[in-house]
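Subject: Sanity check before I submit

Could someone independently write out the structure tokens for this chain? I want to compare against mine line by line before I put it in a report. The sequence has 277 residues.
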Amino acid sequence: MGFQFKSINIVNPATFEGAVVYALILLICAALLNRMLRMGVDRALARGSRVHIDRTRVKFISQLAQIVVYIVTFFVYARLIPALSNLGNAGLASVGVLSVVAGLAAQNTLGNLIAGISLLLYRPFNVGDRLQIPAPTGLETGEIESLSLGYTIIRTDDNRRVVVPNSIMASQTTINLTRDDSRAICSVAVLISHDSNIDQARAILFEIAGSNPKTRKICGCPVTYLDGSGVELTLSVWCVDSIIAGALKCELLEEIKRRFSASGIKITSKSAFFNGF
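---
Independent answer below. Compare away.
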């Protein structure tokens, strides 16, 4: 009889033992369901090379679905346990007040969640896109590594992680360097002295840019500045992307210095004229 009495307590949700058993069962079921969900998402993303899959949307919905699973599990548990059901009915007004207080306390978190949903709907960028964003350290450029419910993580070219709240990502101005057209302009400005030959300098700049394999198209080389210190020529070249543009600029500057020195073209600075007084 004692064994029968204990088994009844275990399966009866009105008892303490039964409430604990039901809580464990529901938690295990929720954990298993979320594990199956994550495994399904990982398999879907692994097939992304063969089938077009929106990785940003899949990951975001997966995180949101896991939270929903635990919320539904809690409500199912509350419906099964009579004590919780009675408590909820008796304290409905108190729960409403606590919800308002909790909402005010977590407004930043809720704001990030809502902003994350808006980023998913409007899709100004996706995971893998290269962005330029303003940050406390200055203008940062990098690739979106992940977009979670609350934060967007950007991996910079020097392998740093910039963590930006979704509410800021949704409200600030962001430059997407990948979307639709990844090409980037490489601009190199060179200030030469007045006694240097402009046509010769421009021809050398065109020759240097045209012989570099990173150059896709030469846009032009107009005069962009003129004062007592000299004449500024700005060479503009199309590249495959912003990373190539940065590398090309360094190569062009080095070759320009070498070729201008050999040709007798003087490179000056905007402060040279004023330093003479």
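---
OP: Matches mine. For the report I'm noting this point. Residues 1-7, 272-277 have pLDDT under 50 and may be disordered.
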